[in-house]
Amino acid sequence: MGRPSDARKRLIEAARMVIFAQSYESVSIDELCAAAGVHKSSFYHFFASKQELVLAAIEVQWQSLEATLKQAFASHLSPPERILRFFELTLQHQQALQQQHGQMRGCPAGNLTLELSTQNEPIRARLEQLFQAWLIYFEQALNDAKAEQLIPASVDTTIMAQALLAYFEGVLLLAKGQNNPALIATLRSGVLALMHYQEKG
Question: I want to staple 142 with a disulfide (CB 3.0 to 4.6 A). Which of 19, 102, 117, 157 is the partner?
Fold first, then answer.
């Protein structure tokens, strides 16, 4: 069994590994403890419920996602390339997961939203906050693209950011359904078309 000092971390990682890959409802606390290598008493020492554990796992997942966003949306890249770089990093991550587990995992936030948005308000609300924080990166890149006249001045960057994220989540869902991460590579042309990208000569 895991050392008491790292039991909380092990449980969070177990939630990310098992629940994010399967579903919230299908995974029991006993299974989470087994995956984490901790006693059930350790679970209740750190978390009052499975919901509380998942909320903690969402926080860690956001930290991981934000690290990728900061890498992708680096200021030295052109605004469109920032968005495309994020999709490229996602493709690499999903390919690595498929090679490791045999299955594409999809978007953890998207998976939980589909499963729990009508059943678990605390988790739904936290996921909504995550998506809103995520949208800021897209919207800033679009604002920069507009300032550089790479997209039309008429583009509503708030709405366009939502469209890009919806497009990303939709393609990720289709790719997961086909267990084919390569489908994510088709995002490039669609993203540029959605943005009405105007390449300068």
Answer: 157
